[in-house]
Amino acid sequence: MAKIGVEPSLTDVQEALKERGYDVVPLRGEQDARGCDCCVITGLDANIAGIHNIVTSGPVIEASGLTAEEICQKVEEKLR
Q1: CA 37, CA 5: separation in Å to the nearest integer?
Q2: pLDDT tens string 28-73
Q3: What's the total number of domains in the chain?
Q4: Hey, what's the signal peptide range on this chain?
Q5: Which residues are CB-contacts of 64 (< 8 A; sequence separation ≥ 6)?
């Protein structure tokens, strides 16, 4: 199953993805995103200056305003 990086504060999302069989890893830093098929972030760490390092080629989903179920659906859509 796909490896999904999820920010540690999104515990409900982590649990929902685990229930669906995904390999969930906490995103505590840039290194944690390496090798992930998809990442889920809160959006609070968005780089305002637009300068960032690309460490994953997979999709990144911003969780703000979405339920855990909606995020799971987005992950599944992106990984198709």
Answers
A1: 8
A2: 887 888 889 999 998 765 543 443 555 567 888 999 999 999 999 9
A3: 1
A4: none
A5: 42, 43
Helical axes 68-78 vs 11-19, angle rounded to 10°: 60
The string of DSSP letters for 17-79 reads HHHTT-EEEE--SGGGGTT-SEEEE-STT--TTS------SS-EEE-TT--HHHHHHHHHHHT
pTM strictly above 0.85: no
| Torsion over CA: 67, 71, 76, 77 (sign) | positive
Residues 6+ apart with CB under 8 A from 18: 24
For 63-78, give the DSSP string: -TT--HHHHHHHHHHH
Which domain does 14 fall in, by range? 3-78
